[in-house]
Amino acid sequence: MNPLIITAAITGAETTKKMNPALPVTPEEQAVAARECVAAGASVIHLHVRDENESASQSLDNFKNSIEAIRAACDPQPIIQISTGGAVGAPMEERIRPIVELKPEMASLNVASMNFGDEVFLNEPLEVKKLAKYMLELGVIPEIEVYDAGHVEITQRLLKEGYLKKPIHYQFVLGVPGGMSGTERNLNFLLESIQDDDTWATAGVGRWQKPLSQMAVERGGFVRIGFEDNVYWEKGVLAESNAQFVERVRKMAEAINRPIATCEDARRIIGI
C-alpha cells in the first residue's frame, strides 16, 4: 500500500456555523484549521471559500486570501486543492477563473450533472471539457469527484478524448442524496470499475464518513474527512474540529501499521 494520504475538507459550500459553530469560514479560521489538520496528519487541504456573509464563493480574492493565510500558517506546506464545484448554481466561468488565475497544484473536477439533495448540480458536458482542458494545459492535477457509477465511465471517455491524462485520481463522494450511498457493495463496484494504476479516495457524507474511511484505510485507498462532509463526531455529538477527524483516521492507519503520507509523499504519489 502507498502511505495514506489524508485530505481535510475543512469548510465546504453547504455547511454552516448553525450546523457546527466550529466551522472555519474566514481566512484566519481556515488557516488555524489547516495548521491543526496538517499537524494531525493531513497532507491535502480541500478548499472552499466564503464571502463576508459566510456564503459559498468562487471569488478570486477570497481564494487568494485563504490560500495566503494557509500557506503562512502551515509548515510543512500541504497541497491546497481548490474546489471548482463552488455552491450549487454557480456559473462555470466563476468556477474556472481561480484555476486559470491561481494555477493551484490540484483541483476538483466534477464530470456530470446530478440531483444534489433538493437542488440540481449542473455540469454541462462542454463546460466540463473546457475546465478539464484548462487544468491539463496548466498542469493542475484533477481529482475526479465520483458521486455515481456513471461518473467513472464519463471520466474514461474524457481520458480517451484527450481531456485527461493518466493516472486518474478518483474521489468517491458517497452518501449525497441523489448519488450512491456509502455501502461496501457500492465501493466494491466502483473499485472494479477503475484501472489498477489509478488512485482513489473515499469521502463519506454524514454517517458514511467513518465506515468508508475504515474501508479505504484497509484497502489501500486514501481518505477525505472534514466538516464539508460531516459535522458530527458520533450520533448526536458535534465534532470539535476538523483535526479531530484527521486524528481518528490516523489511528485507523496506525492500527494496521500503514504509514501516513507526508506532504511530500502526497505530491510524489499524486504526481505533482
Poorly predicted runs? none
Q: What's the CATH C level?
A: Alpha Beta
- The percentage of residues in β strands lies in 15-25%
Strand order of the largest sheet: 1-2-5-6-9-10-11-12
* Termini separation: 19 Å
Radius of gyration: 17 Å
Assign the CATH superfamily: Aldolase class I
Please estimate the helix content: 25-40%
By DSSP, the count of extended strands is: 14
**Main sheet specs:** 8 strands, parallel, barrel
Summarize model confidence as the mean pLDDT.
96
What's the order of the H and E elements?
A: EHEEEHEHEEEHEHEHEHEEEHH
Task: Quickly count the domains.
Answer: 1
Task: Please tell me the CATH architecture by its name.
Answer: Alpha-Beta Barrel
Looking at CATH, which topology would you report? Answer: TIM Barrel
The class by helix and strand makeup works out as alpha/beta
Q: What best-fitting shape do the alpha-carbon axes yield?
A: globular
Query: Number of DSSP helices?
Result: 9
